[in-house]
Amino acid sequence: MSAAHPAAPHEPVLVGETRARLEALFPKYPTRQACLLPALWLVQQARGWISEPAMAEVAEVLGLTPAYVKGVVTFYTMYHTHPVGRHFIQVCTTSPCGLCGAEDVMRALLRETGCGELGATSPDGRFTVVEVECLGACGFATPVLVDDDFHDSVSPEGVAGLLARYP
Amino acid sequence: MGYPHPIHPKETPVLSRHFGEAEARTYDGWAARGGWEGLRTALAMAPEAVVEAVKASGLRGRGGAGFPTGLKWSFMPKPSARPHYLVCNADESEPGTFKDREIMRWTPHQLLEGVAIAAHAIHAERAYIYIRGEFTEAWAIMEAALAEAYARGALGGDALGSGRRIDVVLHRGAGAYICGEETALMNSIEGKRGNPRIKPPFPAQAGLFGMPTTINNVETLAAVPHILVRGAAWYAGLCLGSPKSTGTKLISVCGHVQRPGNYEITMGTPMRDVIFEMAGGMRPGRTLKAVIPGGSSVPVMTAEEVGRCVTDYEGVVAEGSMLGSAGMIVMDDSADLVYQLWRLARFYAHESCAQCTNCREGTGWTTRVLERILAGQGKPEDLDLLVDLGEQMTGKTICVLSDSCAAPVVSGIRKFRGEFEAYIRRERQPALATV
Ligand SMILES: Cc1cc2nc3c(=O)[nH]c(=O)nc-3n(C[C@H](O)[C@H](O)[C@H](O)COP(=O)(O)O)c2cc1C
Ligand code: SF4
Ligand code: FES
User: Of the ligands numbered here, which is closest to the C-alpha atom of B193?
Assistant: First the structure.
């Protein structure tokens, strides 16, 4: 991991507003550990991904070890452990959506973004496309999440217009 | 997109009556539709009386297992120094199921009200609603509704002026189907990996943070206010089939139908009415091949079985499957069943938390054997191998994710064997590249 992202000095992330938002959660849970998932969300919202030094910071504030935090981070698919494109695209291809043409939408996304393959970032750094399992919106095939925006009924033809909204 | 649809004459809209009405999302809009009366009624009752009312209604869990809700609540110990917790399961990730999302998107106060009533009934001062991480829209709506409910005094230290403290906390998941399993979900709230726990102890003895806990699905809790306002007898009377299945049920219909969406039925409604009338049936020129009726985790049904089936817990079992979460995945004659079952097996292999060997290995092998069949490299003995694998995966693991992978695959082989054999005999073009 550190070899792939060398040398940039770590700017503390759990400071200022982000730190205040984390501390506001403490009274809602009987343990500090229970704030781990929310803390990781705060880090990802602030930085776009969760680096090892950021995991160490979270561990320090919540009284956990960095190894433990990493074990949790990597269990969940929505946390990024490496940088992703400016816009992160999740497309569902599980069976119910697959029956309605989701794989064609996925291929159109890979082509139109220039990403070429799943998990890769486009050369201009604009997009990363990943295939995800059921988004809980199977009656609205094909559902696509771009960052936090949910789009339903996306067709291969609609992909170019959708992407144009995310410069 | 035309959704939500106009209410179909054969529907019984109770939970979904106000889907599509933007004002119903606000505190006042909900109150104008009779909202918050259920909580007011409950808070005027002893908690034990609320539990009795829910028992008498016959309400059963809508998250998949169909366990009687009042009975579950009655397992909670008497109040003591140990805090009790209520958890609402809004992790909805079962392929085919998208009803809890609509409850939260359109009627957030309906859910908050149900959560508060259940908290009162089980002597909990705090409830957590665990919302899957991908539900960004539902999250924003729930967050706004929660802030409003606090501002108006429906929740907090003196809920609706009752003197009772009821706090509700929203907790965001981060992408993991297994966190819908109740004990995995509790671990996830505690800041752990979402591994299911070995039971016993059951949540009512030692659940969230080791304390007595009740966990219920979104749809289960959303039904509770209506039971208190309109009475347990009214709810129990919503029944066209088995007397053990009462009330209404949101059915999510997806796949090859003309009008995919959620339809709210009285328990016991014929399945063919749901698929052919409410959801509009197949596209022109197409015929029904198969339905997986309970979300993807249950046996496949043939068109003939669907034609006979009564939609309630007992009726679907009588036709060889399970109602589960009632997400119906519909396939017409254009569907490649082998391919779809492979894609579902891949889902379970991806989502296995990997702590049980039979699940980790079984879901992986099931996927790989189906893959080679689809690639035109299957052997005649592969079908027996898949059935054997299914046996090893059923009833032998910590949770039922493993069983859930085996159920559609094994039933698919039993009911549609010819489709698998066509690939194995090379009578069909490979659907996947060489593995
Ligand atoms: C692998 C797995 C996934 C599950 N996913 C969900 C889910 O997303 N939502 C849900 O409500 N229940 C889910 N359940 C069922 C829960 O464990 C639990 O039975 C349910 O939340 C109880 O609520 P109820 O009694 O109101 O149905 C899942 C179970 C398993 C084994
Ligand atoms: S059955 Fe599978 S998902 Fe469930 S606990 Fe075992 S390994 Fe994890
Ligand atoms: S299968 Fe795609 S959203 Fe459920």
Answer: 2
